[in-house]
Amino acid sequence: MKIIMLGAPGAGKGTQAKMIAEKYCIPHISTGDIFRANIKNGTELGKKAKEFMDKGLLVPDELTCDLVVDRIAKDDCKNGFILDGFPRTIPQAEALDAALVKNNEKMDYAIDVDVPDENIVNRMGGRRACLNCGATYHVVFNPTKVEGKCDNCGSDTVLRDDDKPETVQNRLKVYHDQTQPLIEYYNKQNILKSVDGTQSMDKVFSDITAILGE
Ligand code: AP5
Ligand code: MG
Q1: Rounded mean pLDDT of 53-74?
Q2: For residue 74, which phi and psi values (nearest 5 degrees)?
Q3: What CATH number should be reported for the domain holding residue 40?
């Protein structure tokens, strides 16, 4: 099963993608997590990506597409994968399609987690992320068991650099300009499914599993 998670920043793509990956035993591939791991490890890619991410801008397609195309060619993706945060431009979507077509494959589902902008800003301020394992929490909606420590790995959880209110506004603008057109792109391919992302995390998940099947 090959799935794309679409949705605004903070819509809950990462939260749902992790649960889907676990249930269907497919790898969760988040370009944002990959860039953050590179920033943390001080790689060249990380240095380049950080310049854009800190401003709420997209990392250029040439730094992003090959990374994902290489990742989905790995053995663990043979039975499918879930993409979270990629594609987020039409050229990225075309690059993904082109890579799949070479193997006579195509994406199965593009799931749009729909949340209006006004809900987003509240969510982002309360989000805490583990930069070690990528787990995501929320101080109110999904708190860690021990304050400030990741439940999975015990590392510190932090407010992401790009979750400051002014950067969130930029990310939302970039989303509407560059990523939202993908909804129509996948609608035309007949693989678009929408879920109401303002519901509880569990309800959103059960709506998604109703689409994907048991
Ligand atoms: P990325 O890491 O992908 O960030 P994003 O798309 O902005 O999305 P977020 O991770 O912020 O939100 P999410 O939808 O995963 O929500 P979450 O589950 O955490 O990208 C970051 C940056 O990297 C980009 O801005 C760009 O610069 C760069 N980048 C990445 N991919 C790229 C690409 N393909 N091309 C170019 N650049 C790229 O949930 C949010 C919060 O809400 C959490 O605290 C969560 O606990 C809470 N929450 C979740 N669901 C619910 C619910 N149902 N009810 C209440 N609270 C909830
Ligand atoms: Mg995320």
Answers
A1: 96
A2: -70, 160
A3: 3.40.50.300
Is the residue at 139 inside a domain?
no
Distance from Cα 13 to the centre of ligand 2, integer Å: 6
Residue type at 106 in one-letter notation:
K
Question: Do β-strands 192-196 and 109-114 pair in parallel, antiparallel, or remain unpaired?
Answer: parallel
Enclosing domain of residue 98: 2-117+170-212
- Asked, for residue 46, whether it belongs to a domain, the answer is yes
Catalytic residues: 13, 88, 127, 160, 171
Please give the mean pLDDT across all residues of the chain.
95
Residue 10, in any domain of the structure: yes
pLDDT given for residue 131 in this prediction: 85
Number of domains the chain is built from: 1
Nearest to 194 by CA among 2, 8, 1: 8
| Residue 56 CA, closest ligand 1 atom number | 25
Tens digits of per-residue pLDDT, 94-136? 999 999 999 999 999 999 999 999 899 888 989 999 988 889 9
